[in-house]
Amino acid sequence: MELHDTKQTMVQLMVTIFLFILATGSSWAQSTDDVSWAKRVDTGSQVVTTMQFYFHDTLSGRNPSAVKVAQPQSSTNSLGGFGSLLMVDDPLTEGPNKNSKLIGHARGMYGQAAQNDLGLIMVLNYGFTDGVYKDSSFSLLSLNPAMQTVREMAIVGGTGLFRLARGYALARTYWIDPSTGDAIVGYNVTITTYI
Ligand SMILES: *[C@@H]1O[C@H](CO)[C@@H](O)[C@H](O)[C@H]1NC(C)=O
Prior knowledge:
By secondary structure, the chain is an alpha+beta fold. It has 1 helix and 10 strands. The longest helix is centred in the first third of the chain and has 32 residues, at about 1-35.
């Protein structure tokens, strides 16, 4: 009888320990997944990731992050000229301030692809360096109607946590210097993946 009671107590203790490990284990998993600028929700059939970050495009100064690499012979020097092409390596940060936490880089090209208004063709890899998203990237390939308040752009693929990504970005200018073209752009991104 006494032996039976001891056994029962031990089983209860083990169950308690197991539940404790399960509970703390899952909360650890959640906290490692969480970064302030992104959220992953597993819906069962797919994972929906939402992100909010800022893109710093600097054309002026001694260390521009966007440089013009080509322009048609007929074009003037202005950024707006149809046919001009820029190579970019733009920092992505958590907040709008340039000194806020660096979370990745947007690398690639954009060019003026519209003849009569501002329409930039964006061919960019958004690669991340923060949290669980370190070494993951998504590819954006879309026209950016830069004069619109909110620009919607298509996300067509990705690597790492963004393998087989499909999604869209909503971009809104946070700050712009019209004389240089330097800009800080807020991005809200929604992506679905299977992992
Ligand atoms: C991005 O999301 C924030 C917070 O929900 C919102 O305030 C902001 O207007 C959104 N920006 C765009 C471009 O949708």
